[in-house]
Amino acid sequence: MSFFILTVIGALLLLDLLWCLLAGRLIRRARWKPAAVIVHSLFIVLQVLGLLVVLLSRRPEFPFELPRFGTAAVYVWHLLILPLLAPLLLIGSVAALAIAAFKFIRRTPAARQVHIRQLSQGPVIGRRSFLATAAVLAPPLFSVSITGIAVRQLEDFRIRRLTIPITGLPPALDGATIAHVSDMHVGRFTTGAVLQTMTDAVNDLRADIVLLTGDLINSSLDELPEAVATVRRFSAPAGVYTIEGNHDLFNGRREFESRVKASGLALLVNETADVTVRGHPVNLLGLRWGAPGASAGRPQSTEEGIRASLDELLAKRNANAFPILLGHHPHAFDAAIEARLPLTLAGHTHGGQLMLNEETGFGPMMFRYWSGLYSRGDSHLVVSNGVGNWFPLRTAAPAEVIHITLRRA
Fold this sequence. Notes:
single chain; 409 residues; alpha/beta; Purple Acid Phosphatase, chain A, domain 2; 2 domains; six-stranded mixed β-sheet
């Protein structure tokens, strides 16, 4: 594991510890302390053990994997609820230490004896005790409830239909259709029956061509056979083409690329492909993730990495064909505008994943373009929310397959 991942895991375990200590302090004198302590302690123990199992299950030799609900519960608690509680935990820890130190210094021996006698009188009953216990139990109960909602979402996705008027679109391509599939994340949360449902939905669109914009798998190359089998079931008159995303490269770029190409899938890694759609030539430009030799990390997320890859790709462009750029990261659109490319397809953002509405949430906080259709002059970008999931919960950013219809402007 990288230093960054180890740091994140350490921070999460520290937050688990702080939550355990502070919650225990809140309920230490409640009448219902035994029941509250059991629920609280059991929840924390299961969460910590679950986190360790999730991490270890990434190793092929590890023999056990949590059921999907358990995995989703670990993700929701550690990547959503705990980070939201983190400021309160840190403030509460500092305050508790300061108060404890102040009381210890100010307390006389006689006062300490009075304090001991008060504790021996039994649990405190009252509104403060009730509120303290409720505050301790509310986050775990909320986490379990959210997990239930999240698991039900994992089977759902929508068909989103977009019509794009394009200046200079060849007459033969007026009305041409594209099934845009992105971020399948085949693996932990996207597996089994939903993949067949996905295949049926894509094929029922009867699009002229199917284009995938990366993150075929979630993290492990062990997930690749199921992902490849799913993509091979997609069908369209002009074919099925894909590019790579950052999750595809977690176990290594060369191994992923070689296995996918050996499977017979049309994977474009800074390569172009000439296809015929409705009798007219179309030039697909498949943008790599990052620079040559880079893995899943930072290079593609920088403007320099995107532009360097696109410059290399544009040199291979067929000027006599209608171009479509496939780039996993949507910020490739800025370079596509400069290159006067009429259409770019992207994914990566999951529509912002956790949004309050279409304009408010993680999407605009992290990306310039995060969901749907964007137009700048004669250039257009379609960003898919993705049809799969690496994180189990979505809000106001539903999973989707996009059906695109091209029209002459």
